[in-house]
Amino acid sequence: MISKLPRWVWLGGWLLAFLAGVINVVGLLGFEHQAVTHLTGTTSMLASAVAEGSRADIWHFACVLGSFVIGCVISGVIVQDGALRLDRPYGFALLLESALLGISVPLMDHQLAWGHYAASCACGLQNAMVTTFSGAVVRTCHLSGMFTDLGMFLGHAMRGLKPDWRRLALCVMVISGFFTGGVAGALGFQQIGHKTLFVPAVVTAVMALGFKLWQFAQRRRLAR
Questions:
Q1: 89-128, pLDDT tens digit by residue?
Q2: Quick one: which of 125, 17, 19 has its CA closest to 77?
Q3: Cys staple from 200: which of 19, 29, 49, 175, with CB 3.0 to 4.6 Å?
Q4: CATH second-level architecture of 18-217?
Q5: pTM listed for this prediction
Q6: What does the domain layout of the chain look like in residue ranges?
Q7: 10 Å Cβ neighbour count for 51?
Q8: What does the pLDDT average to over 48-77?
Q9: 82 falls in which pLDDT band (50, 70, 90)?
């Protein structure tokens, strides 16, 4: 059962899922047509490449997966803990995500796969950073778990069992954010191509700055 979550957690979770939806759609519509956050599909494509003996594809898909894991590792080093604690350096993690997304744009524009790897690393960093909110496992970059929980809770409701309504709302929040981000990303790609990724890059930078200012204000308040 999820404890009561502050309003800013809901807003932040939705926004990060939205940004992940933007990033993933740009990857799908880009020059490689490669999903950035969909690791299940990427793993299947890697397995197919191994079966076919395609060294170039094996390298590419392995790098997409490895980049995501590296992002998670970086988050583990920076944030150190999955539990939500406001004294953690989330601002620095968000700023690093912003930099990775910014770097990915010129690389993708020049049709370099390193742009996908940078974007995948950014998504891994984000996904690991927001892993846990008050005991609720949250994944903002992929939806399999969210849809699984959604279906499970609906099944419980059909059997007359009391579902965890906050968890259910959390699932709907993440799914709606990711979907809306995907729509926005597709519309943006039609207009400015890979430069659409500058949007999540700027938003995460603003979030980083806002979080650092909030931490500074909290420290000044406690010091009085």
A1: 888 999 999 999 999 999 999 999 999 999 999 999 988 8
A2: 125
A3: 19
A4: Up-down Bundle (1.20)
A5: 0.87
A6: 18-217
A7: 8
A8: 94
A9: low
Distance CA 78, CA 93 (A): 7
Token pair belonging to 165: 């309504």
- C-alpha span between 97 and 30 (Å, rounded): 20
Beta strands (DSSP E) in 121-198 are 132-133, 136-137
SS3 content of the chain, % helix, strand, coil (to 5): 75, 0, 20
- Calculate the average pLDDT of the chain: 87
Q: How is residue 209 written in tokens?
A: 């700055």
pLDDT tens track for 137-165? 667 777 877 888 888 888 888 888 887 77
Residue 210, SS3 per DSSP: helix
Tell me the CA distances in angstroms from 217 to 105, 121, 212, one per residue in order.
Answer: 34, 31, 9
- Give yes or no for residue 67 having a pLDDT over 80: yes
How crowded is residue 194: how many other Cβ atoms within 10 Å of its Cβ? 23
Q: Are 165 and 5 in contact (CB under 8 A)?
A: no
Query: Across-strand partners of 132?
Result: 137
Both tokens assigned to 54: 């395609």
Of 117, 103, 132, the C-alpha closest to 32 is 117
Query: Measured between alpha carbons, how far is residue 191 from residues 23, 179, 187 in Å?
Result: 15, 19, 7
Count of positions (residues) in the chain = 224
For a pLDDT cut of 90, what percent of the chain falls above it?
A: 52
